[in-house]
Specification:
80 residues, 3 helices
Length: 80
């Protein structure tokens, strides 16, 4: 099997299992899903290292969103 196809299948399976798992435990907050999707994306990208034709816009967008969510959570903890 081609490496690119294996990457896409692994990413799809990982995202599906994380979605099903979060829905089973009753997580309904969007930030939890985005955070887990970001981690899944970067883990599969690190393992398979897919060949890219352009800059990784999806990775940057997920990272910026993840950083924003973490910053909001930190501010919620620190603010009285």
């Amino acid at each position: 099997m081609e490496r690119q196809n294996l990457y896409f299948m692994s990413l799809g399976i990982l995202l599906m299992f994380s979605t099903v798992g979060l829905s089973i435990i009753g997580a309904y907050a969007l930030d939890v899903y985005v955070s887990l999707f970001t981690i899944s994306y970067f883990v599969t990208s690190t393992i398979f290292r897919p060949r890219r034709r352009t800059f990784d816009f999806v990775g940057i967008a997920l990272f910026v969103t993840f950083a924003f969510i973490v910053a909001l959570r930190i501010l919620a903890i620190l603010a009285p």
